[in-house]
Amino acid sequence: MFYNFTRSGWIGSSSCCRCHCSRGQRGAVSNKYGWSLPKGSLERGETFLKGAEREAFEEAGIEVIAKEAAFVTEYTSEKYGQYLQVYYEGSARAGQIECSADPDDDINQARYVRLADLRSFITFRPWIIPLEHWVQHKEMKYYSFDLDVEGFHIPE
């Protein structure tokens, strides 16, 4: 994960699951495509909430207690199809940030990243825009992105 932050507030998303901290820094993971929040598909019979907790542990080594939904982001593109992701506010119970528990062996780095440095790591529009808004306003919101029209990444 890519943040240096206190581990008291986490957000996770599922459907494809993601997790990050909400105070001062966020956790991020890197794979062959670049930096993102921890993510993955739900397992059979798994709730979005439990999927977010599991993915945080598998990809970043952090045990998380997910609480309420923080925001929902949906995005589409001709090339990649349609995705719906639900992000959760929560708190870290235990764990040292590391990527050794990843059963898919997709993650090559995990670290904490300062909030001020988020855009240096995460540039994918459907992840960074909702995350930044939630960190600033702490309000539940739905986002929809047509990546073929808006573009995949925020401008540098």
From TrEMBL:
Give the Nudix hydrolase domain ranges: 2-137
Q: Which Pfam families match?
A: NUDIX
Q: Which UniProt keywords apply?
A: Hydrolase
User: At the top level of its lineage, which domain of life is listed?
Assistant: Bacteria
Q: Which GO terms describe its molecular function?
A: hydrolase activity
Q: Which PROSITE patterns match?
A: NUDIX (PS51462), NUDIX_BOX (PS00893)
Q: Where are the transmembrane segments?
A: none
Name of the protein this chain belongs to: NUDIX hydrolase
Q: Which organism is it from?
A: Paenibacillus lycopersici
